[in-house]
Design goal:
By secondary structure, the chain is α+β, with helices and mostly antiparallel strands. It has 16 helices and 35 strands.
């Protein structure tokens, strides 16, 4: 009886231990980012296996797999004779695309501008095939915006590079981004006549020399503001070499802000090289520039533009007028008002594509306060600002077709200055075929190239599955330009499978979301540009400090600097401009951009002892420092970009754009005008001499991270702590049970010995 009672006690102890481990497991799972609660909820949307035959959600793959490659026509190898067009645009592929395995596809995006009247379009595809492919059905199929436009056989020939021309119907194109999909279907046979799907020899390579060409005419943009930034920037001139933004001499801070916002906006839309000028209004009509953007109070407008504005009955005491005028042999866009604050309203409207697209006339009245309304009612605040969807980024879902390993990258719309904060979360909604080997099939998500979470696929959830997890702590504080999604789609008894309708697939739905809150970094470097001057696509409490009187060189260099730091910026951030003599404590809490020489920018001169490249007394040249010994002549003929931590406010930075004289500032502006050269900037100091020789330096060290307190550590790792405590308690119970067993056995042995 006593033995039975002891057995019951022991069983209870073991049972309690199991319960404790079961209860503790979710804590550990949540800590590791597995999202068990969300995954469990997905079962309600699951489709039971065998209820209905599943088909691939990707119509492209379905059409390719259902087709007979042997019936495809031979490729067209001569460029089609298209109707004449005044202009053409060529879109080149960025890299080779290798198709290996049974079925693969690749997507290429090209744009059709709203001011185009498209005349023709065609694709030129260069490709090569594996020399092991012999008399096996193989083909390439081409889709434009998911509409099939052509198919061609893969010619086995001599293994040399082949060319196929594909005419694209104009009716298949749309304004904005268009998607050309190239799909390949290639299978090999072994000696027994079975499909050798495990071989890596069945490949087709799409060359980076492939292209899409579009011929077009242009519309008369003077009739609608909605065409902005055309004609000031266009596919005919993507550099803006014949474009300038004008602002009055001695312009107020508000006028300068509006002009700089438009300068940054236009600069971010240039193609490879930014040759837009920032000029004083006194140069208007005298400099030969044809495409002009004028930002000024109505009282400061040239007579011809003021006369054009008087034709309107709009009150400009609070509102802004934005209109196009044909004046002095070119196109002019005017942003004006009687109120300097209203100028910003006009600039913001032009920069906001959703707002400017509504302006179907050449004149618009922008009401005061409209920018505030947009900010309050838009996605620019709080949680939503950090949320991205697969649909929003790629235009649709993601398809994975065929057995084995497949990867696709979702390139995130994040600047290089982005730093991931805590609380980042990924929610993938997806489905997949139910013919997989579910013992070996899984999905994996990567932050850049770092794997962050995996999940086995389950037959019961094939019709609707979810993977939800928090981004782990080791990627917090890092930057990644993409999230990579990989599927391993394994089949049972794959060898000698000949039925295309059994092709495995997976599909990530467009409503899958990435919540990526931005964090604060301690490192200031050109490598993380445009941080900290831009954050979440907005100017981040940025104040530009300029000389009281600016030369044309300083003004134009300022335009290049603001175009670099404001690349891709939205209009609703925090940007201010102040003359050096008006700089005060009210500006201390901002990230500062200082431009000028020692003699004409007093704020720059006052910070001389803080600069990595400081001036000698008097400011005639730069002084040597711990990293570079400067000769006097050389030091008097260089320009410097340098970052430093602001002495005025913790967590703020300063970008000093300085030179020994105006010519050195001009060299900086000229260098920054080429976008490829901007990306050569690194470290926190950049030097350029009169021969355009450049050097990068690093002076700033990363600020030491403060070690968290015991309380903070426990809070951050509370799930792991709970799991550890529960596990420890469970082990103690087990130990107690073992001790009781030993004691019981010893007592029983002693009794028998008696």
């Amino acid at each position: 009886m006593k033995g039975k009672q002891f057995g019951k006690i022991l069983a209870c102890l073991i049972l309690c231990t199991g319960v404790l481990f079961t209860c503790a497991a979710p804590f550990a799972s949540a800590q590791n980012g597995q999202g068990t609660a969300e995954n469990g909820a997905a079962s309600s949307a699951s489709q039971p296996a065998g209820t209905a035959k599943q088909t691939s959600p990707d119509s492209l793959a379905g059409k390719v797999l259902a087709s007979d490659p042997s019936s495809a026509a031979s490729p067209v190898t001569e460029e089609p004779k298209e109707p004449a067009a005044s202009y053409r645009k060529i879109f080149s592929f960025s890299s080779d695309q290798l198709f290996s395995g049974i079925y693969k596809s690749s997507e290429f995006y090209f744009s059709v501008e709203k001011y185009w009247k498209t005349v023709y379009a065609f694709a030129r595809i260069e490709f090569s095939v594996s020399p092991l492919i012999r008399n096996v059905p193989a083909s390439l199929t081409f889709f434009v915006n998911s509409t099939p436009v052509s198919s061609c056989k893969v010619d086995y020939g001599s293994g040399k590079t082949q060319v196929a021309y594909i005419e694209i119907p104009v009716s298949a194109l749309k304004t904005g981004y268009n998607k050309l999909t190239v799909s390949g279907f290639v299978r090999l046979y072994d000696d027994n006549g079975c499909l050798d799907d495990f071989s890596g020899a069945n490949w087709v390579n799409i060359s980076k020399n492939s292209l899409v060409q579009v011929g077009y005419e242009t519309v008369d943009a003077r009739q609608e503001l909605s065409y902005y930034p055309y004609p000031f920037l266009s596919s005919v001139d993507g550099t803006g070499k014949d474009c300038a933004v004008y602002v009055p001499a001695g312009a107020s801070g508000e006028e300068m802000v509006s002009a700089l916002l438009l300068r940054a906006d236009l600069g971010g839309k240039t193609d490879g090289e930014d040759r837009i000028s920032l000029k004083e209004l006194s140069q208007y009509g005298r400099d030969g520039i044809r495409h002009r953007v004028v930002v000024a109070l109505r009282s400061e407008l040239p007579a011809s533009l003021a006369a054009a504005e008087k034709q309107s009955s709009v009150s400009l005491q609070k509102n802004a007028a934005v209109f196009e005028a044909a004046d002095s042999g070119g196109e002019t866009l005017v942003v004006t008002s009687d109120n300097v604050k209203a100028l910003y309203e006009g600039a913001a409207m032009l920069m906001d594509s959703d707002r400017v697209s509504q302006e179907k006339k050449s004149f618009a009245c922008v009401k005061a306060g409209s920018a505030d309304t947009v900010i309050q009612n838009s996605k620019l605040s709080g949680l939503v600002a950090n949320n991205y969807t697969v649909q929003g980024i790629t235009g649709g879902g993601l398809s994975f077709i065929g057995p084995f390993h497949h990867e696709q990258e979702v390139f995130l719309p994040l600047s290089g200055g982005f730093i991931l904060s805590e609380g980042g979360k990924v929610v993938l909604n997806f489905r997949y075929s139910d013919n997989l080997d579910f013992k070996r099939s899984l999905v994996t998500v990567y932050w850049g190239n770092v794997p962050v979470c995996s999940k086995k696929l389950e037959r019961s959830r094939a019709g609707g599955d979810t993977l939800s997890f928090l981004l782990p702590s080791d990627v917090v504080g890092t930057y990644a330009g993409s999230i990579k999604i990989a599927f391993d789609l394994e089949l049972e008894d794959l060898y000698c499978t000949k039925r295309a309708d059994e092709m495995p697939w997976a599909y990530v739905m467009g409503n899958s979301t990435f919540y990526l809150p931005v964090g604060q970094g301690s490192r200031y470097s050109f490598d993380t540009r445009p941080y900290p001057f831009q954050k979440l696509g907005l100017f981040n409490s940025t104040c530009v400090v300029i000389p009281d009187s600016m030369s044309s060189t300083e003004l134009n260099t300022l335009g290049e600097v603001i175009a670099m730091e404001g690349n891709g910026v939205s209009p609703y951030g925090s940007l201010s401009v102040v003359r050096a003599s008006k700089f005060s404590k009210a500006n201390y809490g901002s990230n500062l951009i200082l431009l000028g020489t020692y003699r004409d920018n007093k704020v720059l001169a006052s910070l001389n002892d803080k600069l990595s490249f400081a001036y000698v007394p008097g400011g005639s040249r730069f002084a040597s420092n711990k990293q570079l010994l400067l000769s006097d002549d050389y030091a008097a003929d260089i320009g410097v970009l340098q970052l430093l931590r602001s002495p005025y406010a913790s967590g703020k930075a300063i970008l000093a754009v300085s030179g020994s004289k105006d010519a050195n500032l001009a060299a900086i502006g000229s260098y920054l005008s080429e976008q490829t050269k901007r990306w050569t900037l690194s470290g926190d100091a950049f030097l350029i001499d009169s021969d355009f020789e450049t050097k990068n330096y690093t002076f700033l060290k990363d600020q030491e991270k403060k070690s968290p307190s015991l309380g903070e550590t426990l809070q951050q790792n509370r799930s792991a702590v709970v799991f550890t405590l529960v596990s420890t308690f469970a082990m103690l119970i087990l130990l107690l049970a073992v001790i009781l067993v030993i004691l019981r056995a010893r007592r029983h042995r002693d009794e028998e010995n008696k």
